[in-house]
UniProtKB/TrEMBL annotation:
Basic and acidic residues biased stretches: 312-324, 351-368
Record localization: Membrane
Stored PANTHER family: OLIGOPEPTIDE TRANSPORTER-RELATED
Polar residues composition bias: residue spans: 325-336
Protein name: Putative proton-dependent oligopeptide transporter family
The organism's taxonomic lineage, starting at the top: Eukaryota, Viridiplantae, Streptophyta, Embryophyta, Tracheophyta
MF-aspect GO terms: transmembrane transporter activity
Length: 453
């Protein structure tokens, strides 16, 4: 269903471009404002809604990948004892393939000039992915009982009003895939005599998001979930302010060089001016993703922390260094009794080591596995919140465009995205001011939580 929504969205985006339906609609086929009629606008906004709905259901793709791809690979690795599968981590192969494919797609679309090809290429790609999925063999999913208890579900529902304060974070996070990328595509891509791709901005953003989402400061309670969410909102404000200042500078360069009516010309300003806001938007996404999940698991549901397998094995096994440290008297007694070691049965010793190794492999604790599954569903819920932020960004752009039509024109050079960034910074700041008393004080009040019981 998600792939179908993405496919329909990109196909409608392709059809909304002027060269596709200009004969049927009676308009012109050039990329001009007068060539965009009501039909193209309807197709455009419908496509954005479908793509946003597909992005909001991204957590289902992650669950499907875990169930259909990663688990069979791990099971095959245990049966075949294949070296590469046993040495490499769980998701390295799939993530490497995903990064390779996404790099090829983004690198190809970045150099396509017509928008019909830029939208048509992902549409064809998602169509092939949908056909491959429908014609492939799906691994049957085992029915499981409800992992969450009634009390846990009630606790999550009581905190549902908090989601109103979290959606603006997703609105700011969506800027990295929309206006930031569009601004970078019209700027100078050269580093000396070498022309580079927009990927040199997208990849650092992804790395920053990954670093924040896997940061140990939140997991080790150095930064509490409440403070982490507040910091992500502060980073969002800083990101919007930085984007507004850089866009104001870019528009000044456009006016000085007379490029207002020349959308195809390259703005003589390096695209690496946008690198700080790309890094900030990556930090906003990663930090909010980590801290929102910890807020629900640690603060709302009070789940115990899951220790890693290495830590558990280290606790279960005695320290080998401590075993080797012996007093001089014990060493002397061992030298005086050499026959005791020789009397032992070597076969019996081998069997004992094999049994300990089998036990050392570790049987999966059902309670621990259940906790990991429940935490994974919380992560999916956080992804859904980010998807709602993407939908909210479409609605916000439409509302602001109706109030201030001059802010969003047919080209980036004639638009005033700096004003939109300032507005978004003000709205995020107001959201943070309202969020702090709610998250730090009102949630501790039983009367407040009883209102949503």
């Amino acid at each position: 269903m998600i792939l179908v929504q993405w496919m329909q969205g990109f196909f409608l985006l392709t059809m909304s471009t002027p060269p596709v339906l200009y004969r049927e609609t009676g308009t012109c086929g050039a990329y001009e404002a007068e060539c965009i009629g009501k039909v193209q606008k309807i197709l455009f906004y419908t496509a954005l809604t479908l793509i946003a709905l597909g992005a909001s259901g991204r957590f289902m793709v992650r669950a499907f990948r875990e169930e259909q791809l990663i688990k069979p690979l791990l099971e095959g690795a245990k049966k075949m004892k294949f070296f590469a599968l046993s040495v490499c981590p769980k998701k390295v192969r799939l993530l490497s393939f995903q990064i390779l494919v996404s790099t090829l797609v983004l690198g190809t679309t970045a150099y396509l000039k017509p928008w019909s090809l830029r939208f048509g290429f992902p549409a064809i790609f998602t169509l092939l992915a949908t056909i491959t999925l429908l014609t492939s063999t799906i691994r049957p999913h085992k029915a499981q009982r409800n992992l969450f208890t009634r009390e846990e579900i009630r606790s999550i529902l009581r905190m549902s009003p908090i989601c109103i304060f979290l959606i603006p974070i997703g609105v700011v996070s969506s800027l990295g895939n929309t206006y930031f990328t569009e601004q970078a595509s019209k700027m100078n891509h050269r580093v000396g005599s070498l022309k580079v791709s927009v990927l040199f901005l997208i990849v650092p953003r992804s790395l920053m998001r990954k670093w924040f989402s896997q940061s140990k400061y939140c997991a080790n309670k150095i930064i509490t979930p409440r403070i982490g969410i507040s910091l992500s909102m502060a980073l969002a404000i800083l990101c919007c302010i930085t984007a507004a200042l850089v866009e104001n500078r870019r528009l000044g360069v456009v006016k000085r060089h007379g490029l207002l009516n020349k959308p195809d010309e390259t703005v003589p300003m390096t695209m690496f001016w946008l690198l700080p806001q790309f890094l900030l938007v990556g930090g906003v996404s990663g930090l909010s993703e980590k801290c929102i999940a910890l807020f629900y698991t640690d603060v709302v549901l009070h789940w115990p922390k899951i220790e890693k397998d290495v830590d558990i094995q280290a606790k279960d096994k005695p320290n080998s260094k401590e075993q080797n440290i012996k007093s001089p008297m014990e060493q002397a007694n061992e030298t005086l009794k050499p026959t005791e070691k020789n009397d032992e049965d070597p076969n019996q010793a081998k069997q004992e080591t094999k049994s300990t190794e089998k036990d050392g492999e570790g049987h999966i604790d059902p309670e621990r596995a259940e906790q990991k599954s429940k935490r994974q569903y919380i992560e999916f819920f956080v992804d859904a919140l980010e998807g709602m932020g993407n939908i909210g960004s479409v609605v916000l752009v439409y509302v602001v465009g109706e109030i201030k039509p001059t802010w969003f024109q047919e080209t980036v050079n004639r638009s005033h995205l700096d004003n939109y960034y300032w507005t978004l910074a003000a709205l995020t700041a107001a959201n943070l001011i309202l969020f702090i008393p709610v998250i730090f004080y009102l949630l501790r009040s039983k009367k407040f939580t009883a209102l949503f019981a």
